[in-house]
Amino acid sequence: MSAEEEAFYLCPACGEEIGIPVDLSGGSEQEYVEDCPVCCRPVLLRIHIHGEGGPTITAQTE
Ligand SMILES: [Zn+2]
């Protein structure tokens, strides 16, 4: 079984849909900054992992 699940967010800077692997063992609330692979701008990601339905991501620019 994998401890990772792919989740998607819309980059707030360029509007592209980005898929990232989410580490499900990292806790139910995670927050980190990652550069958008499309426009290379830093995006603050807040990840909420619920028991069912997979992770949800809120993205905003710094
Ligand atoms: Zn972007």
Protein architecture, described:
This protein has one domain (4-61). Helix content is 0%, strand content 58%. It contains no helices and 5 strands. The protein has strands at residues 4-10, 17-23, 29-35, 42-49, 55-61. The strands form 2 sheets. Strands 3-4-5 form a 3-stranded antiparallel sheet, with no helix packed on it. A two-stranded antiparallel sheet has the order 1-2. The N and C termini lie far apart (34 Å). 10% of the residues are buried. The protein binds zinc ion. Residues 11, 13-14, 16, 36, 38-39, 41 line the site of zinc ion. The site of zinc ion has 8 residues, from loops.
Number of helices: 0
Q: What characteristic shape results from the CA principal axes?
A: elongated
Low-pLDDT stretches are: none
Q: How would you sum up the major sheet?
A: 3 strands, antiparallel
Helix-strand pattern = EEEEE
CA radius of gyration: 11 Å
Strands across the major sheet, in which order? 3-4-5
How many DSSP E strands? 5
How much β-strand is present in the residues?
Answer: over 45%
How many structural domains can be distinguished in the coordinates? 1
Tell me which ligands are bound: zinc ion
The portion of residues assigned to helices is under 10%
End-to-end CA span: 34 Å
What's the pLDDT, averaged over the residues?
Answer: 92
Q: Specify the structural class.
A: mainly beta
